[in-house]
Amino acid sequence: MTTAAQRSGAPEHGPHRPPGVVVLGASGFVGSAVTAAFAGRPVRLRAVARRDSGPVLSPGSTAEVRRADLTDAGELAAAVEGADVIVHLVMHGGGWRAAESDPAARAANVGVMENLCGILRERRPGGTPPLVLYAGAASQVGLTGGRPVDGGERDRPHTAYDAHKLAAERILLDATADGVVRGVSLRLPTVFGHTGAPHGADRGVVSFMVRRALAGEPLTLWHDGSVKRDLVHVDDIARAFTAALGHGGELAGRHWPLGAGRGDALGEVCRTVAELVALRLGRDPVPVVSVEPPPTAPATDFDSVTIDSAAYRAVTGWRPEIGLRDALERTVAALAGTTTSD
Question: Can you give the pTM of this predicted structure?
Answer without folding.
Answer: 0.91
